[in-house]
Amino acid sequence: MFHLAEARRACPGTSAVASGARSLRSLCPGYPPAPTVSPEPTAAVPRRFHGTVTLESTLIGCDARRVAEEVIAHLTGLVGARVTVTFEVEAQIPDGASEHVVRIVTENSRTRKFTSQGFETE
After folding, report:
1. Count of helix runs (H) and strand runs (E) in the chain
2. b/e map of 86-119 (b: 16 or more CB within 10 Å)?
3. Which end of the chain, C or N, has fewer beta carbons within 10 A?
4. Is the dihedral of CA 99, 101, 107, 110 positive or negative?
5. Using CA atoms, how far apart are residues 119 and 97, in angstroms rounded to an integer?
């Protein structure tokens, strides 16, 4: 170890007060340079999650609850995490939907604040 007394001998004219090796290096050009220590590389951590799942329409309550408990709860439990869950519905209706069903589904979709919704004739 390089002591203050040795630093005074190696670099005459320095003040009697020097605090640590950093001060000695700045006061004495001949003082050995600081060892270079490379920081250990840190592993990249995942910062985003995305997933899509198809739920069984006849068991939607059970499936949605399990997704909420087994996936969403773990993500929302992370400090600072912003989690968005999007619910998407797609229906293929071979015989078409009656006016009554179109009216009910359209009105309920508006009430539930769907960001997009609609029926198609193709």
Report:
1. 5, 0
2. eeeeeeeeeeeeeeeeeeebeeeeeeeeeeeeee
3. C
4. negative
5. 9
How large is the C-alpha radius of gyration of the chain? 34
pLDDT digits (tens, 9 = 90+) for 41-68: 788 999 999 999 999 999 999 999 999 9
Per residue in 77-122, pLDDT (tens digit) is 999 999 999 999 999 999 999 999 999 999 999 999 999 999 999 8
The Cα–Cα gap between 6 and 11 comes to 8
Model pTM? 0.59
CA separation for the pair 55, 65 (Å, rounded) = 11
